[in-house]
Specification:
By secondary structure, the protein is α+β, with helices and mostly antiparallel strands. 35% of the residues lie in helices and 20% in strands. It folds into four domains: 7-93, Uridine Diphospho-n-acetylenolpyruvylglucosamine Reductase, domain 2, CATH 3.30.43; 98-216, Uridine Diphospho-n-acetylenolpyruvylglucosamine Reductase, domain 3; 218-331, Alpha-Beta Plaits (2-Layer Sandwich), CATH 3.30.70.2190; 338-453, Alpha-Beta Plaits (2-Layer Sandwich). It contains 14 helices and 18 strands. Strand 5 and strand 6 form a beta hairpin. The structure holds D-malate and zinc ion.
Length: 462
């Protein structure tokens, strides 16, 4: 049974953190994230400076049965950090230092509040590369990326956040602090708690330091834009490209309605064609400039055979930036344009054409429009379902049935219901599609071992 935060708790928190770092008014910004239009009023917001303070805060809340919601930059797309019960929202924004970039070992030690792009820029200045680059890279925090196992356009070649995490410092709910692994690229010592923490959505502990593996920065990249008249052609091209033996550093698909909304809302020029329904963004990178063009030439007949209407090359830095801006802004601008629900479907990549067809067929049956886009090379399709003229009743009662059908298709095709946005609040009701009761029981047991009083992120899915 949780206790309600009271004055005594506020005094105790102020004693640990100092008055300035325990907030009790103007808390609205911490009650929502980027997920639909959810808002849960936070009771208390705390802004600790380090692991020791977090340890004291957690031990206090644990002894008093107070819920704790860890929050990074608030850019989540599944409502994972939302404070659905009255409790303490714990911000990581003061833990924002890059503590070390180790050029001898290609590693870095960072705090969770560092913004993804700041970290990427810092390592790139030294000739190194941290590939995971979610669309919100300019504003999302690395701690949030750990919480969701975030991906981004570079995952097709370089993998997601979890592929770069070597070791984590974690504060447990009882205040104990552990390191989950070692600062090594291999480790066969014990159970892998590091990977268990990645994607654990603030349910098991609070990450206070991250050791990342880095790689050498590729010297060159080339970007191509390929319009398609038929959705099915665009979707089947994804696998044809990958089967050709060329592995692009990004292989994205964007439905033209999303491109239109994004380019208009961001006032970014984009070579729209009336006859295109989908656009593919294909990026190649590497250290040999000539090889990139050889690879592009190898891909030309594949693209033509698959029905590409054209193959445009971004021959300037400006053009590259414009096309990427349009791509990265689709989610945010579609959200501004319409009430919507965002799904994060993922299937084995060869099944993408079947998934896309099913999404559109289900949409027609339930009467909703959707904007599809995402990391096609990973089989990860973001489906933004638009409310448009649907009645509130249809939106609340029928559309979830349609979403359930979409997720059932994902499961049937060997996929699952989220590729990179997490379960959080919004996918909880669909978990039965992918997890049996035995599977849920195992996960509940793990939660119970880490957090027996269940103070971390309660009211979500575990
Ligand atoms: C993206 O790929 O654009 C991100 O996952 C964000 C989004 O889907 O809104
Ligand atoms: Zn994405």
């Amino acid at each position: 049974m949780f206790q309600l935060p009271d004055n005594e708790l506020i005094i105790a928190l102020r004693h640990i953190l100092g008055d300035a770092h325990v907030l009790t008014s103007d808390l609205e910004p911490y009650g929502s994230d980027y997920t639909e239009d959810f808002y849960f009023p936070p009771a208390i917001v705390v802004v600790p400076a380090d692991a020791l303070q977090i340890s004291e805060v957690l031990a206090l809340c644990n002894s008093r049965n107070i819920p704790v919601y860890t929050r990074g930059a608030g850019t989540g797309l599944s409502g994972g950090a939302l404070p659905v019960l009255p409790g303490v929202v714990l911000l990581t924004k003061r833990l924002n230092r890059i503590l070390q970039i180790d050029l001898d070992n290609f590693q870095a030690i960072v705090e969770p509040g560092v913004i993804n792009e700041d970290f990427r820029n810092a390592v790139e200045e030294l000739g190194l590369f941290y590939p995971p680059d979610p669309a919100s890279k300019g504003s999302c925090s690395l701690g949030g990326n750990i919480a969701h196992g975030s991906g981004g356009p570079k995952a097709v070649k370089y993998g997601t956040t979890r592929d770069y995490v070597l070791n984590l410092e974690v504060v447990l709910p009882d205040g104990n602090i552990i390191w989950t692994g070692a600062n090594t690229v291999k480790n066969s010592t014990g159970l892998n708690l590091t990977q268990l923490m990645v994607g654990s959505e603030g349910l098991l502990g609070v990450v206070t330091k991250i050791v990342f593996r880095l790689i050498a920065k590729p010297k060159f990249d080339q970007l191509f834009l390929i319009p398609f008249a038929e959705a099915e052609d665009a979707a089947k091209t994804v696998n044809e490209v990958l089967l050709s033996g060329v592995t692009p550093s990004s292989l994205e698909l964007m439905e033209s309605s999303g491109v239109d909304i994004s380019s208009k809302a961001t006032q970014t020029p984009f070579p729209m064609r009336k006859d295109a329904t989908f656009y593919m963004l294909l990026e190649l990178d590497g250290d040999d400039a000539a090889k990139l063009f050889e690879d592009a030439e190898r891909l030309l007949p594949v693209l033509e055979k698959c029905g590409a209407l054209d193959v445009l090359h971004a021959d300037s830095a400006d053009l590259k930036e414009q096309w990427w801006k349009v791509r990265r802004s689709i989610g945010e601008t579609v959200k501004s344009a319409s009430v919507y629900k965002e799904e994060d479907t993922v299937v084995p990549r060869a099944a993408l054409p079947e998934l896309l067809k099913a999404v559109k067929e289900i949409g027609t049956r339930y009467g909703f429009d959707s904007v599809c886009y995402g990391h096609a090379g990973d089989g990860n399709l973001h489906v933004n379902i638009l409310k448009n003229n649907l009645s509130d009743e249809a939106w609340q009662q029928d559309v979830p049935k349609g979403i359930r059908e979409i997720f059932e298709v994902c499961k049937r095709l060997g996929g699952t219901i989220s590729g990179e946005h997490g379960v959080g609040l919004v996918q909880a009701e669909y978990l039965d599609i992918v997890f049996s009761e035995s599977h849920m029981k195992l996960m509940r047991g793990i939660k119970n071992t880490f957090d027996p009083k269940k103070i971390l992120n309660p009211g979500k899915w575990l």
